[in-house]
Fold this protein.
Amino acid sequence: MQIPSSVAKLLNKGAALGWDGRTDEAIAEKRRVLEHDPLSVITNAELPLYLMQGGRTDEAIGLLQKALELDPNYAEAHMRLGIAYMNKKQYESAALEMQKAIALDRNPVRLTNLGELYALWRKRKQALQTIAQLQGLSKQHYVAPNMIAIVYARLGDNAAAFQWLKNARPDDAPKITNPGFDSLRSEPQFKTLEARLKPDPACPAF
């Protein structure tokens, strides 16, 4: 279904505000989009990204649950709901949603998110299993080394994280600025990697 031009403009404006860090304004724009089309699964699942960025996780969870009522098979909504639960340290609920997302649409980004969750949950065995799955996918198509590195970083295995980051490209994600790499920042070799991998400030990170 084609998005009306007036709604598309609001979507684009909201995204631009989010990229600029103007979260409250971005949320207001996204709400206007939702008023135009309250049954839009995509918008109900997209507004929560900005709400989470603004620290309004409970509100984000409510909207994501609504999105899934509209479409229980929307993988992106399951993953975002999992991330919201992870932010609240409700790890069991987070794992359930992330696993649903992966079952619907298996891709490296979602496996990385699940690996980070397991690491934060201190389930090392399961986190290492996601790394093995990412390595398996890398035999079929490119998987950014950063994805494996960030799971190792979350596990506290800095040596392994650095080993993978050495093969990363500047345009790979997750970016070196991601909080998941915070445990590496005090290491002497981090500055060299950061200088090579730091994203262009002109490119939106949201």
Summary: Residues 10 and 33 are 6 Å apart (CA to CA). The longest helix spans residues 5-19.
